[in-house]
């Protein structure tokens, strides 16, 4: 039972990471600033790597992650609707949306770490990924101050 609960926790984090990946991809497509575009694409690729890391852990627990169904498709997306927010390629709005998305991701990761159902062996991975997300947020906040 603990394994199933851990898989559920990891699935939920994958959804958050996929939201971030898509959000950064959208942000890169909606900014005219070449430096920001490059950073956002880097952040999107980093999220993809984090997803793969969690999928590998789910596979080790005995669940296939090849399927598109389940949490990845069913749970709502938390990133702000970039189409409405990014009207006019407003750099400030893009950065604020990214910060909002990072805040949400950080909250979900902190909740996962507080969850007693998460296998102890996976905590270092979650802590490491959380640190990566927090570092990303710090970089985005630095971008905000340059604007």
Sequence-ordered SSE layout with sheet pairings:
Elements: H1 2-29, H2 34-60, H3 71-74, H4 82-85, H5 91-114, H6 123-146
Characterization of this structure:
With 147 residues, the chain is an all-alpha fold. The chain has one domain (2-64, 81-146): Ferritin, core subunit, four-helix bundle (Ferritin, Up-down Bundle), CATH 1.20.1260. The protein is 76% helix and 0% strand. It is built from six helices and no strands. The longest helix is centred in the N-terminal third of the chain and has 28 residues, at 2-29. The N and C termini lie far apart (49 Å). Residues 67-84 have low confidence and may be disordered.
């Amino acid at each position: 039972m603990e394994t199933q609960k851990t898989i559920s926790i990891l699935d939920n984090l994958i959804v958050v990471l996929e939201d971030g990946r898509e959000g950064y991809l959208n942000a890169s497509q909606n900014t005219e600033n070449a430096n920001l575009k490059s950073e956002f694409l880097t952040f999107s690729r980093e999220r993809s790597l984090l997803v793969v890391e969690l999928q590998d852990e789910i596979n080790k627990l005995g669940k296939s992650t090849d399927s598109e169904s389940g949490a990845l498709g069913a749970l709502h997306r938390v990133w702000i609707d970039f189409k409405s927010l990014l009207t006019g390629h407003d750099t400030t709005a893009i950065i604020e949306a990214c910060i909002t998305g990072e805040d949400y991701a950080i909250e979900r990761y902190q909740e996962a770490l507080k969850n007693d159902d998460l296998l102890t062996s996976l905590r270092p991975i979650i802590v490491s990924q959380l640190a990566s997300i927090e570092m990303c947020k710090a970089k985005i906040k630095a971008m905000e101050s340059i604007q």
